[in-house]
Amino acid sequence: MNNTLNVDPAELAKFSELAHRWWDPESEFRPLHEINPLRLEWINGLSPLHGQRVLDVGCGGGILADAMARKGADVLGIDLAGKSLRVAQLHALEAQTPRVQYREVSVEALAAEQPGSFDTVTCMEMLEHVPDPASVVKACGQLVKPGGWVFFSTINRNAKAFMLAIVGAEYVLNMLPRGTHEYARLIRPSELAASCRTAGLDVLQTKGLQYNPLTRRYWLNEDTDVNYLFATRRPA
């Protein structure tokens, strides 16, 4: 596969169509706004962001990238959805967010250009949207400095995840637009762990992300049946 083409045009179109709604906390992106403080604190607790050079892969409209910059990191957000990036740039201008930049470039191309350049790399809610997730994991491993952290989050592939993350979230609760996730593209933790090992990353912590639709509350625990997060590190 051509490294610069690890992208599904239909996926880009899907998110570009919604680009203008990224920063509306009551829009289709409400779940991202609601989980953002939780994942930000988890990342910052393991790899304190202040003063770091940080890469956010698949940054979309910049919800996490913006928050990490406000923690004192120098952040580069990358994505291949140009409309989403323009929304991210506009928000950074309007909110006067310091130390955040955005580029339309693939993670594989950036890895060839700037290997070993970042203290922390984040790749959240993105792997399940690309044709070759292992290629993204490999590039993330190349981009982080020795001793640096790489964080991933995605969705497990099993019957429970299908019922909760697709049927429940997209068709019953209408938390996400229908068609946001395809079951065949979901990734088991064992598969992601294998990709991390191949990429030279040690998996140091695994967390599950839970949600109560009645209270609209999210929390992290040890249950990785549906949404889960990996904290990995490149050996120094």
Q: TL;DR of this structure?
A:
It is built from 8 helices and 8 strands; from the N terminus they run H-H-E-H-E-H-E-H-E-H-E-H-H-E-E-E. It has helices at 9-17, 30-46, 63-70, 82-95, 107-113, 133-143, 159-172, 189-198, and strands at 53-57, 74-79, 100-104, 118-124, 144-155, 202-212, 217-221, 227-233. The mean pLDDT is 90.
Shape: globular
User: In which order are the strands of the major sheet placed?
Assistant: 3-2-1-4-5-8-6-7
List low-confidence stretches: none
What string, H for helix and E for strand, traces the elements in order? HHEHEHEHEHEHHEEE
Number of domains: 1
Overall CATH architecture: 3-Layer(aba) Sandwich
Strand content: 15-25%
Q: Could you describe the 3D structure shown?
A:
By secondary structure, this protein is α/β, with parallel strands linked by helices. It has a single domain (3-233), classed as Rossmann fold (3-Layer(aba) Sandwich), CATH 3.40.50.150. 38% of the residues lie in helices and 25% in strands. The protein has eight helices and eight strands, in the order ααβαβαβαβαβααβββ. It has helices at 9-17, 30-46, 63-70, 82-95, 107-113, 133-143, 159-172, 189-198, and strands at 53-57, 74-79, 100-104, 118-124, 144-155, 202-212, 217-221, 227-233. It has an eight-stranded mixed beta sheet. Helix 2 crosses helix 3 (63-70), helix 5 (107-113) runs parallel beside helix 6 (133-143) and helix 6 packs across helix 8 (189-198). The protein is globular, with a radius of gyration of 16 Å. It starts with 8 loop residues before the first helix and ends with a strand.
